[in-house]
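Hey, quick one: can you model this chain's 3D structure?
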Amino acid sequence: MGSTHGTGEKLADRAFALKLHTMGKKAANGAGQSGKLTPSQRAKAESDAKKVIARNKKAAHDYFLEDSYEAGLSLTGTEVKALRMGRASLSEAWVEVDRGEAWLQGANIPEYFYGSWTNHAPKRKRKLLLHKREIIKLEGAVAAKGYTIVPVELYFVGGRAKVEIAVAKGKQEWDKRQTIRQREDDREAQRALREANRRSR
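Sure thing. Here's the predicted structure for all 201 residues.
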């Protein structure tokens, strides 16, 4: 009887020690996960981060922006390289839907500085990569009177070039003046807040 009881205590002690060891490993792993990123993790995080290349500042000024979509872009090699250098403009760009396909028109991606005869045409039309159901929605939107589709922002995310487009309705002159007035009021409020913070120091 005594021998059996002693063996039971030893087994219980071993089980308890094993449990503590397992808990310690989990805690250590958790600490490692919440600590500094490895070089590969850091590279992935940087790749996944959104890097804006160009914004269409006229879009919010000239239009009421409604439904927005993220579209991929069919690009050439020199276009991708030029975009990675931060060279692009959407100021004169628009979106056209034709025969079940969507196209980015008028966007200016300057020629790649180190390109050769294979360089691209800066303002060529570029196919937008969207799901069929999204293109159908866009077609329905532009069929409505007064609506168009405008590019809002061009950026890299996850290493791929993307463009945000939006269904938009043109503003009247009064609406545009209201937008300008609101922007000026916001700037004035920000200046007043900065001044108040400076005085309180």
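One thing worth noting: Residues 1-8, 27-34 have pLDDT under 50 and may be disordered.
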